[in-house]
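Let's sit down with a protein and look at its sequence and fold side by side. Please make up or recall a protein chain and show it to me in full. Label the sequence line and the structure token line clearly, so we can match residues to local backbone shapes. Go ahead whenever you are ready, and we will take it from there.
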Amino acid sequence: MATKQQSGFRYYYHILGWILYFGLNYMLFNTYFIRFNLPLQLVMWVAVFIIFYVNYLVLIPFFLFKKRYVLYLAFLVIITGIILTLTYTIKMDMMPPPNFGDRLHQMPFHSPDITFGEHREPPGGPRMRGIYLDLYNMLMFIMAAIGIRFFEFWSTEEKHKAEQERAQAKTELSLLKQQVNPHFLFNSLNSIYSLAYRKSDLTAESILKLSDTLRYMLYDAEKHQISLKNELEHIRNYIELQKLRLTDLTDVQMNIQGIVNNKQIEPLLFIPFVENAFKFGADGIHESFIHIFFDIHNDSIEFRIINKVVNEHPNERYKGTSGIGLNNTRRRLEILYPEAHMLKTEKKDGLFEVQLILDLNKS
């Protein structure tokens, strides 16, 4: 079903089309030798107007679109025959048949290739030629109605398809974001568990920091876009939460270059990579490092994180969860930044590196 805006646009281009047709018709008749006869032209215009909209509004949607081809052709032939007969009858009552044969010699031809003496009156007589001309005009508008109707149908279908794809993508994004939250919570609770298991005095502080990060995820991260400044602060809080369970054996650094203010970004795009780095790159037993870099430009963000892999097989609490966050983020990037991002991961010589470049202008 067409919206009010689409219907209004349709009315406008119908009106414009008829104005162009009537105007060109008038200009063409006045260009040549035949004197423009307004009453006769009005009859023809009304005829093509009727055949166009009977076909456009009734026959095509109720028969052609529903693949009732035989009924469509039958009704089209009947209606065209009726209108053609009425048009011919009315025109014959209004004016006697014109003598086209005499007027052929009045044609303003200027081509040296044309010899006026060679012209002969076409077969069938002027009345039959008038019928042929009327039938030609009607057939032209029948084809125009079919073409316009099918174009509108195709355009509507494409818009409907695009709306369905947007709705599907929105639903998928919502589900993907919902998966990020429990995945984050799962990893954070494991960090707190390790503190509680050791009866660390930092357990209470870690729970407080977790509550801050959860508040961000429940409220700020539900928005379509958030400030880059808040997203980076969320990453810092997560890093501080993880540091509570680590020792000095893990070197964690976060470096930011560029202007952060006034930048907007989709939420929770970087945190899964940070989570992954802590999962596989920090166990508090082996020497390791996690280095995070943000290089912020006017219209793009380059994110890079590199960590030493010291924990190839996380304990049983992580079983079945490995890779969920990264795969989730890859899919979100495909939806949110199509052809506007570059994601590269590489594992080599005991190191794991992620590089992500976002084009902020195309988000």
About this structure: The chain has two domains: 4-97+123-163, 200-362. Residues 100-117, 317-322 have pLDDT under 50 and may be disordered.
